[in-house]
């Protein structure tokens, strides 16, 4: 071995050893996709993800308060939000705004009627 690295002969010997152990790559075999575009027959390109559960959150409004104000809160405290009564609420999926809508009552539960979809770039659609 040379003082500061490998000699040309040592490098050539290493390359020769590497070539002896080389394996030829083989083409991978994949099943053909059906005409709908998925192996399971689901016509939707998102078919494989259809059963993934996501967190939906409806945001009525927001407010910014000091720690002092938050610590002073108790039962009966009223907190004013940044939205007006009757204004659309935000629907978030995993924390991302996807739609806006109006609050509705369904039996004894609240719900949301979608009035506007938000595209991924953040502008309103439909």
Oligomer: single chain
Helix amount? 10-25%
Q: Shape from CA axes?
A: elongated
CATH architectural arrangement of one domain: Roll
Q: How far is it from the N-terminal to the C-terminal residue, by CA?
A: 73 Å
| Strand ordering within the main sheet | 1-2-3-4-5
| CATH fold category name of one domain | Surface presentation of antigens (SPOA)
Overall pLDDT metric: 83
The percentage of residues in β strands lies in 25-35%
Rg, Cα atoms, Å: 30 Å
Using the coordinates above, name the CATH class of one domain.
Mainly Beta
What is the structural class? alpha+beta
Low-confidence regions: none
Which H/E pattern describes the elements? HEHEEEE
Number of helices: 2
The tally of strands reads: 5
Largest sheet: 5 strands, antiparallel
CATH superfamily of one domain: SpoA-like
Membrane topology: Peripheral membrane protein
Main location: membrane
Subcellular location: Cell membrane
InterPro entries: FliN (IPR012826), FliN-like_C (IPR001543), FliN/MopA/SpaO (IPR051469), FliN_T3SS_HrcQb (IPR001172), SpoA-like_sf (IPR036429)
Can you walk me through this structure?
- It contains two helices and five strands, in the order αβαββββ.
- The protein has 126 residues and is of the alpha+beta class.
- The protein has a domain of 78 residues: Roll (Surface presentation of antigens (SPOA)).
- A five-stranded antiparallel β-sheet has the order 1-2-3-4-5, with no helix packed on it.
